[in-house]
Amino acid sequence: MRELELYIDGASKGNPGPAGIGVVICKDNQVIKNLSFFIGNTTNNVAEYTALIYALQEAIIQKADSVKINTDSQLLYKQIKKEYKIKDLELIGLYNQVQHLLGGFKIVDIKIIPRSQNQGADKLAKLAIKKHSSLSKAE
User: Do the Cβ atoms of 73 and 46 come closer than 8 Å?
Assistant: First the structure.
């Protein structure tokens, strides 16, 4: 069984504002891939969901059977675990996409971790925003 551990984070400067996602993908406690993308102007919650979607898509590309998802977003965690209802229409669409992608795995484990344990994904999300804003200024 191919198991991957996913660390995800989304960031938004201004909320809503320029937003980025960061994903760290590990196998056997080794980083195998980092993802960092600017996703336009949006909210922090949309960025968190978008990071999860990118992470799950990459896990499918990597042919994982099992994923362990680590997030520091309590809202995302509780919505995925169906402890919180989703009222935001944009988040409902993203939530449905996540549920669809989760169907591609035999085992899914999601846990909430302290921000201090999610620094890699956090840096990647902020880096995506920073790179975009420096590109925008150069244009």
Answer: no
Measured between alpha carbons, how far is 20 from 14 in angstroms, rounded to an integer? 12
Spell out the domain ranges in the chain.
Answer: 3-132
Distance of CA 1 to the CA centre of its chain: 23
Q: How far is CA 6 from CA 3, 121, 129, in A?
A: 10, 9, 21
**Does the domain at residues 3-132 carry the CATH identifier 3.40.50.2300?**
no
Q: pTM for the complete prediction?
A: 0.95
Separation CA 85–CA 65 (nearest Å): 28
pLDDT digits (tens, 9 = 90+) for 59-109: 999 999 999 999 999 999 999 999 999 999 999 999 999 999 999 999 999
E runs forming strands in 52-103: 66-71
Distance CA 20, CA 51 (A): 8
Backbone angles phi, psi at 80, to 5 degrees: -65, -40
Kindly give the pairing relationship between strand 107-112 and strand 30-42: unpaired
